Structures are given as structure tokens and as C-alpha cells.
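Exercise 7. Given the encoded structure of a 331-residue chain, write a plausible sequence.
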């Protein structure tokens, strides 16, 4: 298996066609297993999946430190993406409070560099828009860090059209990371057209619908305490039943292709454009290898149309986050 390379943005950032989301190695989806997580990162590199995604808030701080340990002697083999933008108190995340003041960005980058064991971050995202700080100040600060050699490329996460334009006018944005999948199509009406107008790449996170599109799902209440999915509205009550029905087409197409449902979901994304690089998350080598095999799967026009219709906007039941978390999304 050899992954192709794709370009994110017009500034020269080249990455593997599929990346690896590392958040779940440290939080949100069950207990951590550092040995298996590091083995998964090493296996990803062996298979050409060299675009690794983390953030200071994952843990907090634990995920970056894990990557730092995993990448000793391997740093030059990967493209590292991390994020700043949440506020912390006594080493813990302060709810959904955000902080993108320039001095905070500078301090966050120094912390990330230390934990990651590197002298530069390849792609630095603002994790969520901070309504108290003008986007021009954020982009200007990241531009300073690029000129200082501490950051190579600038990205934004869960950002709306107006702030994409404001940031890009100050310092070129190479990538926007947002939730996008068969399961969540909210970018199609306005964000994706603007990204293509400006020459900015798209990095979809949760491309498997937090597991829902793989078929290996339980109701919210059947997940253990601390698992993110316990509070996911789409896993709850009548929403769960409706979403199982909506995802049925994914399973039927997978069966016809002798593939896994998750591979069909990733193949659908990969065929949406060469400027798009999904980052499915896993902490296990088995699922990593399964996900990467999606790069070799092709869907025909009839299959794509069937998936588009079955999981069209409005067909998936429930919001993707609870109200408090949705309030941090810049739409």
C-alpha cells in the first residue's frame, strides 16, 4: 500500500492523502494504551500515512507529549499539525472558553514545540475562533511565527466564511479543518466553495462520524463514563434509530464491494476532490490499516449518488454537538 500525496493550499504544503487523527490516543474514546498508540503511529509512518494531527487541548497536553515520545528519531518523516485556542486553568481546560490573544498564541507554540520535541510545527491551526480577538491579530501573530521559522503553514478549524476571508487577507491560510463526512455535510453550501475560490485545502475530521459510519456503534448510554459518545445527540434515543437507518446504504454498498463500511465512507470523501485530506482517528494498528486501505477503493457514479441521497443534509437526525459545544463553532 502506497498513499498518494496531496497539496493543502497554494503555499506548498504536501501531505499524505490520508492522515491520522491522534486525539483518541489520549482522551474521549475509552482508556488510553500508550504502547499500542505509539505502535500505531510507527505503523502509520511505515505505510506512508505521515500527516499527524494533535492539539494542546487533547489531554490537555498529553497527546502532544505522546507524539513527542513516539517521534524521537522520526520527526523528519512526518508532517505535524497542532492547534491552539482554548483557555486553561491549573493545567486543565477551562470549559469552552477560548483565548487567541497574540501573547497566548506565542506561549502556546512554545509549549507545543517543547512537548512535541521539535523546533517547528508544520501546520498550526487556530482550534476555534475567539470572538474577543480580531482574526487579523490571530493571522498576524501566526505570520510572525512563520517568519521566525517556528511554524511553516497556517490553518483554521471550524471557521466560517467571513473569518476565512479575514485571516487569508493577512496571512495565507493553507488548510481549514472541520467536521465533514457523509454524516455531516454542513460545509457544502458555503465553506467549500470559498476554500476552492481562495485555494485553501480542507482537512475533514471525524470522517467516520465518530464511528457511526463503521457500523460498530452502540446507543449513547451503552458507552462507559468519560466516552465522548455518551453525550453525542446523534447517538441518543430516536436520533440513534433514525441514523442507523440512514447509514444502511453505506453498509449495503460496502457488502457489494467486499469492503468495510468505514472504507466506503472514506472513499466517498477522497473522491470529493484532490484538495481534501481526511484524518480518521484511531489508536489501534488494525483500524489504521483498515482505514488506509480505503485509498485503493473506487466508488462508481451510481454508488456516489446513492450515498449522497441517503445521507443528504437533513437525513441525519440530531445536532452534531450539544448546544454548549456548538456555540464554539463559527457559523
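Solution.
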Amino acid at each position: 500500500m502506497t498513499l498518494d500525496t496531496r497539496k493543502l493550499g497554494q503555499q506548498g504544503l504536501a501531505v499524505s492523502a490520508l492522515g491520522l487523527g491522534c486525539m483518541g490516543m489520549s482522551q474521549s474514546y475509552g482508556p488510553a494504551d500508550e504502547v499500542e498508540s505509539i505502535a500505531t503511529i510507527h505503523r502509520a509512518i511505515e505505510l506512508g500515512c505521515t500527516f499527524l494531527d494533535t492539539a494542546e487541548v487533547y489531554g490537555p497536553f498529553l497527546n502532544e507529549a505522546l507524539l513527542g515520545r513516539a517521534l524521537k528519531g522520526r520527526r523528519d518523516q512526518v508532517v505535524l499539525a497542532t492547534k491552539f485556542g482554548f483557555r486553561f486553568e491549573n493545567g486543565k481546560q477551562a470549559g469552552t472558553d477560548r483565548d487567541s490573544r497574540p501573547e497566548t498564541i506565542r506561549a502556546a507554540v512554545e509549549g507545543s514545540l517543547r512537548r512535541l520535541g521539535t523546533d517547528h510545527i508544520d501546520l498550526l491551526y487556530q482550534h476555534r475562533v475567539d470572538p474577543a480577538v480580531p482574526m487579523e491579530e490571530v493571522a498576524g501573530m501566526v505570520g510572525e511565527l512563520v517568519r521566525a521559522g517556528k511554524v511553516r503553514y497556517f490553518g483554521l478549524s471550524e471557521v466560517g466564511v467571513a473569518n476565512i476571508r479575514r485571516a487569508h487577507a493577512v496571512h495565507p491560510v493553507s488548510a481549514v479543518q472541520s467536521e465533514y463526512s457523509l454524516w455531516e455535510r454542513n460545509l457544502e453550501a458555503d465553506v467549500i466553495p470559498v476554500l476552492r475560490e481562495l485555494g485553501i485545502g480542507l482537512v475533514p475530521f471525524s470522517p467516520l462520524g465518530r464511528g457511526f459510519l463503521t457500523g460498530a456503534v452502540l446507543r449513547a448510554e451503552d458507552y462507559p463514563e468519560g466516552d465522548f459518545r455518551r453525550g453525542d445527540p446523534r447517538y441518543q434515543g430516536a436520533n440513534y434509530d433514525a441514523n442507523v437507518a440512514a447509514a444502511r446504504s453505506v453498509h449495503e454498498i460496502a457488502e457489494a464491494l467486499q469492503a468495510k463500511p468505514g472504507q466506503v465512507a472514506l472513499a466517498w470523501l477522497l473522491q470529493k476532490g484532490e484538495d481534501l485530506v481526511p484524518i480518521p482517528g484511531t489508536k489501534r494498528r488494525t483500524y489504521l490499516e483498515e482505514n488506509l486501505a480505503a485509498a485503493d477503493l473506487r466508488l462508481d457514479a451510481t454508488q456516489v449518488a446513492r450515498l449522497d441521497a441517503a445521507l443528504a443534509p437533513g437525513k441525519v437526525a440530531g445536532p452534531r454537538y450539544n448546544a454548549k459545544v456548538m456555540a464554539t463553532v463559527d457559523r
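Remark. DSSP finds twelve helices and eleven strands in the chain. Students should compare their own answers with the one above.
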